[in-house]
Amino acid sequence: MGAGRTERIRNEKNAEVKQAYRVDLASLRHLLKDAVEAGKEAKPVIISMLTAEGKIERVEVYSNPVMDKYLAERHQLGSYVGAGINDPSKYIRFSILNRNNVILSK
């Protein structure tokens, strides 16, 4: 995930965004292509994510599907969940909605 603009911007609905970053979605999709759902024998995919504090944090990520697999693949959608490697109390949930959007949540 690469850092991009950090100035304050406004979206179409006039909501203030304090930070914005450019994400190389092709690379992120490539890294996540082998992500499996969490489970007893599941191995996480390890990626680096930028935190709200502007630091790079390594996280273990699992697939966390929220819709039918066929629809998700057809529309290039993916939902993921993970935790920090150095600090497992740091939890991340994010979705790749299409070719242009990633939504992060705490």
Task: Give the SSE map.
Blueprint: E1 9-10, E2 16-17, H1 25-32, E3 45-50, E4 56-63, H2 69-74, E5 78-84, E6 91-96, E7 102-105
Antiparallel strand pairs: 1-2, 3-4, 4-5, 5-6, 6-7
Characteristics:
106 residues, alpha+beta, five-stranded antiparallel beta sheet, two-stranded antiparallel sheet, 2 helices, disordered N terminus
Count of DSSP helices? 2
Give the domain tally: 1
The helix/strand class is alpha+beta
The global form is globular
Number of strands: 7
Main pleated-sheet profile:
5 strands, antiparallel
Briefly say what this structure is.
The chain has helices at 25-32, 69-74; strands spanning 9-10, 16-17, 45-50, 56-63, 78-84, 91-96, 102-105.
Describe it:
The protein is an alpha+beta fold and 106 residues long. It has one domain. Helices cover 13% and strands 33% of the residues. It contains two helices and seven strands; from the N terminus they run ββαββαβββ. The chain has helices at 25-32, 69-74; strands spanning 9-10, 16-17, 45-50, 56-63, 78-84, 91-96, 102-105. The strands form two sheets. The protein has a five-stranded antiparallel β-sheet with strand order 3-4-5-6-7, covered by helices on one side. It has a two-stranded antiparallel ribbon with strand order 1-2. β3 and β4 form a beta hairpin. The longest helix is centred in the first third of the chain and has 8 residues, at 25-32. Mean pLDDT is 77; it is low at 1-9.
